[in-house]
Design goal:
11-stranded mixed sheet; globular; Beta Polymerase, domain 2; two-stranded antiparallel ribbon; alpha/beta
Length: 267
């Protein structure tokens, strides 16, 4: 079971950070999306984000008023803590690829990238590799050609396997799979709004409950590693070869056991 209605809780966090760094081309990634969609946790106090800027560009564009900022030298994760809400922490790390894990825990080589698909391939498990972003919309930009009701999640999987995307109109959620499609819609990890609107206008629109668009944005979930198929099939699956993933970072074995225990209770 996937609780798509919970995803609205990410709205305010996305808007806060995009305003804080003056960049709408950011992505919330990992556990906040996973736990909201599975209803494991709905209280968000530690948000992971990424974007295509280099560390220097991120730091240069930060609005440094009313926040505390910390950064790590190697991974260049920048931590934001609002002074008026110290219980919430935001960690922004640039899109990157990683190589040569020499101590079974940390990568020896890190390369910054503008490729969101490449960034997704360094993740440990498919359930941690979902990305969230937003597109501001006007209803006049969209033309409904077809619509159908989804009655179960098995049907959702079949549509994704055939088309590699689906627009859930009543949830205002567009789910994207397939690396080529994602790269086309996010060249240099910057949303191509025209391409995306064309995609939606030529798609079949699906809904679970009703057919109204009543918000100012569309939520986009980028699922390059087929998280949805794995979670509906109740699988904890590594990104790429599991032997390599566990050799790179031994802590992932403990994470895997934890996920199995938590998800068994939920699924």
């Amino acid at each position: 079971m996937i609780f798509f209605d919970n995803i609205y809780k990410l709205e305010k966090h996305f808007k806060y950070i995009s305003n804080q760094i003056n960049n709408e081309n950011i992505f919330i990634v990992g556990w906040p999306i996973r736990d909201l969609l599975l209803w494991i946790e709905t209280k968000l106090d530690d948000i992971d984000l990424t974007c295509w800027w280099t560390p220097e560009e991120i730091y240069k564009n930060i609005n440094k008023e009313d926040i505390s900022i910390f950064k790590t030298d190697k991974f260049w994760t920048i931590t934001f803590i609002p002074k008026d809400n110290k219980k919430t922490k935001y960690e922004l790390t640039p899109l990157r690829s990683e190589w040569k894990y020499e101590d079974f825990r940390h990568p020896w080589e890190i390369n910054w990238t503008s490729d969101i698909v490449l960034d997704s391939k360094r993740r440990d498990f498919t359930i941690n590799s979902l990305y969230y972003t937003q597109l501001k919309i006007k209803n006049s930009e969209f033309k409904i050609k077809y619509d159908n009701q989804l009655k179960d999640f098995e049907r959702l999987i079949k549509i994704l396997e055939n088309d590699w995307y689906i627009f859930l109109v009543d949830k205002n959620i567009l789910i994207l799979q397939n690396n080529e499609l994602i790269s086309k819609l996010f060249p240099q990890s910057i949303l191509d709004k025209k391409e995306l609107i064309d995609l939606i206008n030529n798609a079949i629109w699906y809904y679970f409950e009703n057919k109204e668009i009543n918000k100012e944005y569309i939520t986009i979930l980028i699922d390059a590693n087929n998280w949805i198929q794995d979670i509906i099939s109740k699988r904890i699956k590594a990104v790429w070869n599991p032997d390599d993933r566990f050799q790179e970072d031994a802590l992932r074995v403990i994470r895997w056991i934890r996920f199995v225990n938590i998800l068994n209770q939920k699924l």
